[in-house]
Specification:
The complex is a heterodimer of chains A (243) and B (229). Chain A is mostly helical and 243 residues long. Chain A is globular, with a radius of gyration of 20 Å. Chain B has one domain. The chains are: A mainly alpha (243), B mainly alpha (229). At the A-B interface, α5 and α6 of A face α6, α7 and α8 of B.
Chain lengths: 243, 229
């Protein structure tokens, strides 16, 4: 509890207006980049010549979301290591925020992937390595919240959550390779070691969208972290009133 | 023999003696495994249309993983309820030694179940010549077992300290064990379909060894935190 309150005090002591200002700026930049990315994707990048045709446009949305999902789990992994090393409650809060957003983005990856799958393969769901990987990741990280809800004591809850975020993140690439052991891969591989197979306009649209989505994630992480910090503070104040 | 080694052996012996006295873990795991096979038989033979031998690899590993879950859940319950774990933690023993001893004991119990269950399984389901492919099957089973018990013991330690214990373990254990299950089931299917020399299992075995190594290292680095003060 001590470390949690000190984290709360430290965060609220920071100039609130500046924090909100930075977050707003991040969101504004994300909005501009995402808008530019979308415009480039629809008006500048040529329509795909292969059988995919217009449905390929979802790539500019789908791939950045997938990247952000994995990045978010990566943040939780790093936060987990930092928590175990320093036992500072703010890393626990960061871990919660990151896993929550990772789950959100993974859900969106599956949703956009299924929409595209319906257009390209004719079915919403195929037991395809990447789709399956994200489904497993979603179930895995849902376990993170189940784990948190079953531990009462705060420091122990934070330790176990950090441990689990580390273990789960190590598993994500393994799952990725395991599902690939199976032969039936339908998912197109865009970025290969031999090059992207895209023209310049495609690449620019994709990478602008990626940058925009990443900034969106950063902004959302800041907001989530703020909410978690306030929740801790509320919890602390309630406890004090209760006494 | 070094001190750590002596401590490790003493702890493994303790677990095995405790199990020999009651036999409750091994007996219930074995009964579960056989019952699950019967369930599979009736679930998968709809009007006798399916060739079950094609599914044997997957069935075997589903049975093993859920059987192992039963055992893993039990393995810390006694320690916790009888206060044995507190005693263990008070001893001047390295936490990692506790982990290795627990993992070894769980591995032994799982192996005993498999030794009993595989012949029954072959009797029920297999038509192919497994005996000539025995080295391949054995290799896959041993390497996969190490992975199951390493990850399982680490997660069972965590779940034992939570409110919902045996409810939590499957939820966090199963998604993490899926990669191993995929590899082990595909390797075993090869063995049962008779096209498995050790060389054709190389990919699967390498993957399983890497998986084991990753979680052994991870457990080594984090077990202090998992078992608590």
């Amino acid at each position: 509890m001590e470390s949690a309150t000190s984290a709360v005090a430290e965060t609220t002591a920071r100039p609130e207006a500046m924090r909100i200002g930075v977050t707003t700026a991040v969101f504004a930049a994300a909005g501009v980049l995402l808008a530019v990315g979308l415009l480039a994707a629809f008006w500048w990048a040529p329509t795909d010549a292969s059988a995919m045709g217009f449905s390929q446009k979802i790539l500019y949305f789908h791939a950045p979301i997938a990247w952000c999902g994995l990045l978010s789990f990566g943040v939780a992994f790093v936060a987990g290591i930092l928590y175990l090393r320093r036992q500072d409650a703010k890393y626990d809060l960061l871990g919660v925020a990151a896993v929550r957003l990772g789950l959100l983005f993974s859900g969106l990856v599956m949703a956009t992937g299924m929409i595209w799958g319906k257009a390209a393969w004719g079915v919403f769901w195929a037991w395809e390595p990447r789709l399956t990987t994200f489904l497993i990741a979603c179930l895995l990280y849902a376990g993170y919240f189940v784990l948190r809800s079953t531990v009462e004591e705060e420091s122990r809850r934070a330790t176990y959550a950090a441990l689990f975020a580390i273990i789960a993140f190590v598993d994500v690439p393994i799952t990725f390779f395991a599902t690939r052991l199976l032969p039936e891969g339908l998912h197109p591989v865009v970025i290969r070691p031999t090059g992207t197979g895209m023209v310049a306009a495609d690449a620019v649209a994709l990478f602008v969208s990626m940058a925009g989505m990443t900034l969106l994630l950063v902004g959302m992480l800041r907001v989530e972290l703020g909410i978690e910090t306030l929740r801790e503070e509320l919890h602390y104040l309630k406890n004090r009133l209760g006494r | 023999m070094s001190l750590g080694m002596r401590q490790y052996r003493a702890m493994v012996r303790k677990d095995i003696i405790a199990e020999l006295r009651t036999k409750e873990m091994v007996v219930s795991m074995f009964l579960f495994v056989v019952l699950a096979m019967i369930v599979f038989h009736y679930a998968f033979t709809v009007r006798g249309s399916v060739r079950l031998s094609l599914l044997t690899g997957g069935m075997l590993w589903v049975v093993f993983v859920f059987g192992a879950l039963l055992g893993l859940n039990r393995s810390f319950v006694h320690e916790k309820d009888e206060g044995c774990l507190d005693g263990l933690l008070l001893c001047p023993v390295d936490r990692v030694t506790i982990f290795l001893a627990k993992t070894t004991a769980n591995l032994v119990f799982l192996a005993i179940i498999q030794l009993l269950a595989v012949p029954v399984f072959l009797l029920f389901f297999s038509t192919s010549d497994v005996v000539s492919n025995l080295p391949g099957l054995l290799a896959v089973v041993v390497v996969a077992d190490i992975g199951i018990t390493t990850l399982g013991t680490l997660l069972a330690t965590i779940s034992m300290n939570t409110r919902s214990r045996d409810l939590l373990l499957p939820i966090i254990f199963l998604p993490l064990i899926i990669p191993l299950l995929i590899a082990a089931a595909s390797g075993t299917a090869k063995v049962f379909n008779g096209d498995a020399g050790l060389s054709s299992l190389l990919g699967v075995l390498t993957f399983l060894v890497v998986y084991d190594a990753v979680f052994l290292v991870l457990a080594y680095g984090t077990y202090d935190f998992a078992i608590g003060e």
